[in-house]
Amino acid sequence: MRDPHGNPGPGTGGDGRGCAQADGDARRQQEALEVKMLLIRHKFLVLSGKGGVGKSTVAVNLASALASAGRRVGLLDVDLHGPSVPGLLGLDYTPQPGRAGGIAPAKVTDNLWAMSIQFFLPADDDAVIWRGPRKYSAIREMLSAVDWGHLDCLVVDAPPGTGDEALALVELLGSGTGAIVVSTPQRVAVSDVRKALAFCATLELPVLGVIENMSGFVCPHCGETTDVFLSGGAEAMAADLGVPFLGRIPMDPAVVQAGERGVPHVVACAGSPTAEAFANAIQPLLRMTERPVHGTHSVTADPAAAVDQGASGER
User: Fold this and answer.
1) 30 located within any domain
2) Which of 11, 74, 209, 288 makes a 20 to 30 Å CA pair with 224?
3) Model confidence over 127-165: pLDDT tens digits?
């Protein structure tokens, strides 16, 4: 696993270097990380208390909806053991050198770029079998090495739970970071989301909102909604804990079909009730990321501009 400059890829390590050189690399990565994070106005950390709630699908569609609304958006997939973003976006990308000496993200649209740990694995079916310190190193390398350039926001698809990876992301992303917590409506999922919200409170991570995913099944024939997983559980929990509620996303077969084709639902089915639900959910995020009239991010370089168009990972 190597980056486009021939160096070991994220989390590779084990190359026989001495401690002094490794410490020097860590300092350089930290310096590069701080510079890159300064170029990103907002970081949206998409969390879930458990797996299986559709977190990655929500992250992809939120990022796509924000980009469709005119924001410059990066989408970072650090779900190390189950990266889903490349499949959901239809990306087959080999990391290329960026214009700032790092790694160019895959270009999805004119104002949406993506990066995933999946791009560094030798084969799609390879498993990531790492302990905590190696995970931390991989996440730090990905954040410090990718040449995003100026972004209005970076949407980060985090692994489920409140373990090493989530803790590392909160520490490394720094200021301007807020959490978007995804749940399904039923009690067992909401219970785990309460733990995710307690995690945010303990780390003083602002909660931007809760999204209730799979909130009712939309029949593809008659359009009637049936509460397969109940509905309203995450909304009631958000009200009980005093955190913002961003909205309900229905269980829609069209979302699955779009993901299978590698196209975000908000693009494939723009104007549908489910796409409108995503559009409503991002309204507070749009207000946050609105650019100042004389802002410094209105004219910026394309982070993937140095990459040959044929290798950019576009659909």
Assistant:
1) no
2) 209
3) 888 888 999 999 999 999 999 999 999 999 999 988 899
Rg (C-alpha) for the chain, rounded Å, is 19
CATH code at 253?
3.40.50.300
* Of residues 255, 152, 166, 263, the one with CA closest to residue 205: 166
Rounded CA separation 196/44 (Å) = 15
> What does 76-111 look like in DSSP terms, one character per residue?
EE--TTS--HHHHHT-----EE-TTSSEEPEEEETT
Structure confidence at residue 315 as a pLDDT band (50, 70, 90)? very low
How many domains are contained in the chain?
A: 1
Instruction: Establish if 35 belongs to a structural domain.
Output: no
Distance CA 45, CA 76 (A): 10
User: What is the per-residue pLDDT across 15-25, written as a single tens digit (0 to 9) for each?
Assistant: 445 555 566 77
What phi, psi does 47 have (nearest 5°)? -115, 160
Domain enclosing residue 260, as ranges: 42-290
In tens, the pLDDT along 240-266 reads: 999 999 999 999 999 999 999 999 999
Cα–Cα distance, 293 to 94 (Å, whole number): 37
- How many Å from the N-terminal Cα to the C-terminal Cα in the chain? 24
pLDDT for 296 equals 47
Packing angle between helix 273-281 and helix 55-68, nearest 10 degrees? Answer: 80
Decide if 36 is inside a domain. Answer: no
